[in-house]
Amino acid sequence: MARVFYEHNANPAALQGKTIAILGYGSQGHAQAQNLRDSGHNVIIGLDPKRPSAVQARADGFTVVSPAEAAERADWIQILTPDETQAEVYESAIRPNLHPGKILGVSHGFSIHFKAIVPPRDVDVVMIAPKSPGHLLRRVYSEGRGVPSLLAVHQDASGRAYEYALAYAHGIGSTRAGVLGTTFKEETESDLFGEQAVLCGGLTSLIKKGFETLVEAGYQPEVAYFECLHEMKLIVDLIYEGGLARMRYSISNTAEYGDLTRGNKVVGDETRAAMKEILARIQDGSFAREWIEENRQGGRNFGALREKEKQHPIEEVGARLRAMMSWLPSEKRKTAEPAEAPTARAVNA
């Protein structure tokens, strides 16, 4: 069983008088920075002052300086840039300013676990990983609640790394909900597996193949969209609220019988074997090396894959149907377009 920490386990005063530099002001960056500030901590933002996100950070009342200056001024350096840019940011801005006694923090263990970043032994290296998107982390904190986080310590040079990490978790509001102890290895490998095999890769492939099966059998694409994509949210919401049992309690007996007798035929032993292969390639570092090399080569394959997916019929059908859904905000009715090319994704988005 994972150990869970709450408010009474944290000592917020451990970070009193320390300057926390948040490198990046994207989804997690803006949320963690604002929550920490509202919890009474001294926060500065490290990013290129010319970036649009820098303008927003200043509008939100933060001091914005270059990543290198932020790293130099800070006692705690929190890297919240994309995985593929972290090694570059570390080498150019952080490593020259990472002195004994400082704390290096991340919210995903990829760069540390796969040694894209190798910190010196005389600094604390910790991870606080909120289990929600940044906008939700901020909103829930503002409502007086919190979202759970994972906590791990890679290096405890000071002997107080766990205390510091819990103080940070308290600052973003996560000790209100519960902070689960883990390791960099466990968080990184399980997170990548979940993304690839279930939450993103597995789910999108399941949706598309269901859509394609119905359309090829002569059913209207609009009906296939509703059955295989639109209603997914309704089912996932029930599972989120009360597990598989609540979902099964809430659906019809016909649907539950179909679930229990047919689901394993679609996602069965062959799928599990593929999942094991995916996990093995994560564990041995193959995926990390592939992703790092993809970015070194300019992201051409990534860009081609993105473009191909945008052309899938389910996207065209979905765009037309979402235009009819007046309850959706207008920006959410559209098929998302990547803001930048894969490799340009932003050092401090």
Tell me what you see in this structure:
The chain has helices at residues 27-38, 52-59, 67-73, 83-94, 110-113, 134-142, 161-171, 184-199, 201-216, 221-230, 232-250, 253-266, 269-283, 286-296, 300-310, 313-322, and strands at residues 4-5, 19-23, 42-46, 64-65, 76-79, 103-106, 124-130, 149-155, 179-181. Strand 8, helix 7 (161-171) and strand 9 (179-181) form a beta-alpha-beta unit. The chain has 16 helices and nine strands. The protein has 349 residues and is an alpha/beta fold. Helix 1 (27-38) packs parallel to helix 6 (134-142). The chain is 53% helix and 11% strand. The two termini are 36 Å apart.
Strand order of the largest sheet: 1-9-8-7-6-5-2-3-4
Q: Over the alpha carbons, how many angstroms does the gyration radius reach?
A: 22 Å
In whole angstroms, the N-to-C terminal distance is 36 Å
Low-confidence stretches: 339-349
Q: What is the multimeric organization of the chains shown?
A: single chain
Q: What about the largest sheet?
A: 9 strands, mixed
Mean pLDDT: 94
How many helices in DSSP terms? 16
Shape, per Cα inertia axes: globular
